[in-house]
Amino acid sequence: MYADLVVLAGVAVATVxxxxxxxxxxxxxxxxxxxxxxxxxGNLFQVPPLRPHPKFLEWAQxxxxxxxxxxxxxxxxxxxxxEAADELLANRSKIYSGRPAPHVAMDxxxxxxxxxxxxxxxxxxxxxxxxQGILGPSPSRKLRTMQxxxxxxxxxxxxxxxxxxxxxxxxxxxxxxxxERHWFALIRRYTTSVVMHLSYGQRIHRLxxxxxxxxxxxxxxxxxxxxxxxxxxxxxxxxLRMLPDCLAPWRSEGRKMHxxxxxxxxxLFSESRVDMANGIAxxxxxxxxxxxxxxxxxxxxxGNGVTTxxxxxxxxxxxxxxxxSMLEAGSDTTAATIETFVLLMLSNQEALKRxxxxxxxxxxxxxxxxxxxxxxxxxxxxxxxxxxxxxxxxIMGVPHRADEDDIFGxxxxxxxxxxxxxxxxxxxxxxxxxxxxxxxxxxxxxxGKPTRWGSGPDSHDRDHYAFGWGRRFCQGxxxxxxxxxxxxxxxxxxxxxxxxxxxxxxxxxxxxxNDEEGCWSLGFISVPKIYPVQFKARSLKHEELIWKAxxxxxxEWQTMGLAGDER
Length: 567
Ligand code: HEM
Hints:
Layout: H1 2-28, H2 53-63, E1 66-71, E2 74-79, H3 82-91, H4 103-109, H5 122-135, H6 144-161, H7 164-167, H8 183-200, H9 211-226, H10 233-236, H11 249-277, H12 285-295, H13 316-347, H14 349-363, H15 378-390, E3 400-401, E4 406-408, E5 411-413, E6 418-421, H16 423-427, H17 477-494, E7 495-498, H18 516-519, E8 534-537, H19 540-560
The structure holds protoporphyrin IX containing FE (HEM).
C-alpha cells in the first residue's frame, strides 16, 4: 500500500514536471518566421495555387530550413532542407502522418473515401495494409510480367509513331489535355494500362477513341484543381460549412463532381462485382479482394469506410476509391517522369550518348534489356534518378499534418498544422545537390558499382525525395521504378529519338526545362507541356526485334484472356 502511494506520488510529480517543462518550452518557442500576409486571408493571395513551388523556393531561400504561411485560419509549416523534413516526417512520423484534407475535395467530392487524404487512423491502416499486399517490395515483383509485356507494346508504338508529333499540329487542352495522336498519349496508355490491370485486371488496348483514359486524366486534373489550398473558401473558413445549401454553392458543385467521378469509379467497380456474380474469374486487386471478403462471409458490404471487426474489411465505396487511388497515383506521375526523362536526355546529349554506349555494350542487338541487366547499367539508372531529382513529378509532395503540438529547432508547431516537405526546395538545395539546376547523373553514379535505387523511406539512405516521407511514403515506388527502368532502358536501347531542327538556326526545337511557364503544365503533378519528338528504330536489327516482340505479345494477351492491341 505504502509502495503504491510512493509510485503514485512519483508519477504525479513527474507529470507536473513534464507539463511545466513542456509549457515552458512552448512559451520559449515561437512559430517559424514567414512572409507577412493580410488580415483574414493571410498569405492566400501571394501563392499561385496551381504553381506554388517557385514562390515556396524563393521563401525557402529567404527563411531557411522552415517557414510558416497562413491561409485563412490554417497554419502551414514548410520544411525546406532534407534534414528538417527527415527529422519531422520520417523520425517523428508517429506525430506527422496525418493529412490536412481539403474539406470540399475530400468530404464532398470524394465522400471521405480517397486514400491519399485519409487521416492517420485505423481506416487508413486497413486500406494501406491491403494495398501493401500488392505493391510491397516482394508482391510488386509479380506485376513485372505485365510491365514487361506492356513495355514491348510501347516501344513498338513509339517506333511506328515516327515523326507524327512533328509533322502534325497538336494543341494541348486548357487543363493539360493531351491530343490522342501525340506521343505523350502513347506513354499515358502504358502507365494507365499497367495500373488498370493492377486494379481491375483489364488493359487499355486502344490508342484512339479511348474514353476511359480521357476520363481518368480528367478526374485527376479536376481533383488536383479542387484540392489546392484556397480553391474553396469553405476549405479555409470552417464556419462557412454551417451555411445551408442555398448559401453554399460549393456543396452542390462538389456533389455533382462526386457523381461524375462515380460514373467512372462506380462503373469499373460494378463490372467487377457482376463478373464475380457470374463466376467470371479476373485478376486484379478489386476482384481478389472481393473474393477474399466473400470467403470471410462478407460478400455484400455496401457503403463507406471499413468494418469494425479485426482485421477490418473495406466496404464497397472505400474499395472502389482505393482502386481509383492507385489509378490516379500511378498514371500521371509515372508518365510525367518518362516525358521529363526524354526532355532532359535530349537537352543533355552527352548523358544520352553515354547511356546508349553502356546499353549497347551490356545488351547488344540480339535482345532487349530486362531487369536482370539493371546492375550492369548503373549510368542508365543514375539518369532516371537524376530525372526525378531535377524535376520531381509531385513537386511539392503531399502535405502531412501535425497530429500533436510539437517543438522543432526552437520553433513551436501547433497541432493541426499542415506540414509540407518542400521536395522542390530540397532538390534545388546546393548544399545537398551542388549546381542543382544542372542535369548531372554522376551525382548517383560510381564507376564499376551498380546504382541502387535507395529511395525508400529510411532517412539515412535517401537519394532523392520524389516519393515523400515516413509512414505515408509512396506505396507504388517499387512499381514505379520498375516501370521507369523497363520502358526507358528499352527506349534508349532500340529507338533514336530526336527533337526537330529549326530550319533557320539549325538548332533543336526543345522547351527549356528552366523556363517554368513555357515548359511545365500547371497543377499538382508537374508534367512537361507537349513537345515534338521524332522516333525511329536504331537499326534494321532493332526494328525486327521490336516488331517480333510486339507480335509475340499479341498471342500472350490471348493466352491471358486479355484484349489484344488495336492499332
Ligand atoms: C514516378 C512515380 C510516382 C511518384 C513520383 C509518386 C510520388 C508520391 C508521393 C510524393 C506521395 C506522397 C508521399 C507523402 O505523403 O510523403 C505518394 C503517395 C502514394 N502513392 Fe505514389 N508516386 C508515384 C507512383 C505511384 C504508383 C505507380 C502507385 C501505385 C500504383 C502509387 C501509389 C501511391 C499511393 C497509394 C500513395 C498514398 C499513400 C498514403 O497516403 O498512405 N504511386 N506518391
